[in-house]
Fold:
Amino acid sequence: MWKVVGQKYRHCDGISRRDFVRAGALTFGGLALAPLGLPQLLRAEAAAGIRQSNKAVIIVHLDGGPPQQDMIDLKPAAPAEIRGEFTSIPTRLAGFQICELLPLMAAHADKFAFIRSLVGSAGAHDAFQCQSGFPAKDLNNVGGRPALGSVIAKLQGTTADAAPAFVDVMQGRPLVRNSARPGFLGPSYQAFRPETSQLFARELETGMKGELARRGENHATSLSLNADLSLGRIDDRRQLLAGLDRYRREIDRSGMMGAIDNFSQQAVGILTSGKFAHALELDREPAASRRRYELESPIEQVGTSDTGFATNKFLLARRLIEAGVRCVSLTLADYDTHSGNFDRLRRLLPVLDKGLTALVSDLDERGLLDDVTIVVWGEFGRTPKINKNAGRDHWPGVGPAILAGGGLRVGQVIGATDKTASVAVERPVHYQDVMATVYQRLGIDPVHTTIQDPSGRPQYLAGEGEAIGELV
Structure:
């Protein structure tokens, strides 16, 4: 286990020594635990060096596949085995009703765009399509498609940034299956993945535990320093880099990475500046601000679900965006509701309702909402018919998505399904269309911008997707 040792005291620049160590440990952890880290990301950003951007995106993955007929597309006139147990409530949008478990979202519906006709799911149980718009196997012959955050890091990141361009705090299935991956762009553009398990407890399913064990321990970056590296050995950045150099020589012998260069020094500068490190520490948030993200009634963790504290994932995302991160991906767990669908949603939907509306209101009050696009979705929807275990199974035919911010024309509902929420009968929207919309809001032309794959062929960012005209 990695631990911080020594007492807390402050540098003249206002950064506490413990903050310095803990932030620096991110780099230590990234280099010592993972063969691919922030320095490679910075190196690649410098190679791109296209432009600086203040636009950002937050991707919220509802892990397992959310049931839209129990959230934003209820079918009260359908038979009981279709409509389920929840009633609908009116929203601020005339004629549009959503689940009774989403009262805050209903009250702020004018801040959201509700898509009820998301199509094109690959039917795969991972988050890759929610990260890229593409099936996980697409372009596997050249390394696979990159996640949106990796593309942002390449096109808009710079070596002067105060934070990594792409930060992944997903847990569960996305973590196991490494959904936020750089694909053919290579490890230089991978997501920076801090260790957040101590903040957000998340039990994994048995099969997922096995998958994670087979992946080894390089799936996250430690947030604290090994106890054998005392404060006396890292009194300044020079000594810290000397320690990094020792680690580099040890790692190089195993062939895990190349030599550390000035990008490593810049990585240390980012992580020890205080801004990014402080963003990861929720206890630095003023108490009044933290309260707006807290549920009034606690929610018990059952099985693989999140605790009620998971609403703070949205707070963490806001703090990371303020620190300069361009793409944040996070997960809300336990939407794979093959059994006990309604009992589980009674725990899950209040977390989404509170966290998402708090995030949107918070960003709006801070003058950031028009610059930050938020996308909430899952890998597919759920079956219209309730199974014998009171659950809903996988349904790639149609699913939901909720968008906010980014200067989008929100306060509207897009698309419709048939009487049982089986198929889209009005305005189908593809995953790639959503991605094209996000790229457009980030100031990246999704139609004409390409990135070159290892074979030298240009690849369009959103495939055949087009920005959703109603929103832009």
